[in-house]
Amino acid sequence: MNEESKNKISSIDTAYAKEQYVEFQKQQRQLVFRRRRLAVVFLVAMGIFIVIGVQLFNDYQRLQSLGTIKEETVAEAEQVETQLTNLKQDVNLLKDDEYVAKLARSRFFYSKEGEQVYPIVGTETSDTTGQTTKNNTESSTTNK
After folding, report:
1. CA-to-CA distance for 52 and 82, rounded, in angstroms?
2. Domain-embedded: residue 2
3. 77, 101 Cβ separation under 8 angstroms
4. Claim: this prediction has a pTM higher than 0.85
5. Is 144 within a domain?
6. In sequence order, what DSSP letters do the residues of 50-93 get, joined into one string?
7. Which residue range forms the structural domain that includes residue 64?
8. How does DSSP classify residue 129?
9. Residue at 101 is within a domain
10. Overall domain count for the chain
11. DSSP states of 8-63 as a string?
12. What is the pLDDT of residues 82-134, one digit of tens each?
């Protein structure tokens, strides 16, 4: 016998052997089917997790931006509240006739009866808004 015939393995052609071979092929097909099904389930699950993760990340980013907008709005509301308080104080002051008369005398150089206005060059005045303005002429009043 030569070496080629020694290395060949021949199958047994009995009914039992054929039955076992068909069963083995059937099990192999089922194993491949299960692996493919498991891979598809895994890929679908990964896809779902990726979509959910992206949505969570976008929601987190939106939450952060809304937080900064809220902080800015709260700061702006506090600023508006202080302006409102100041304006209410100004309204209360403008209801006082003596204050209005004093304000008119200082801003528009009005004077009381018998009072003389003397302009002074290069002094600073403060108006009701709290800003300091520099005028070329300023009134200094004296009663006679």
Report:
1. 45
2. no
3. no
4. no
5. no
6. HHHHHHHHHHHHHHHHHHHHHHHHHHHHHHHHHHHHHHHHHHHH
7. 13-95
8. T
9. no
10. 1
11. ------SHHHHHHHHHHHHHHHHHHHHHHHHHHHHHHHHHHHHHHHHHHHHHHHHH
12. 999 999 999 998 898 888 888 888 887 777 777 777 777 876 655 544 444 44
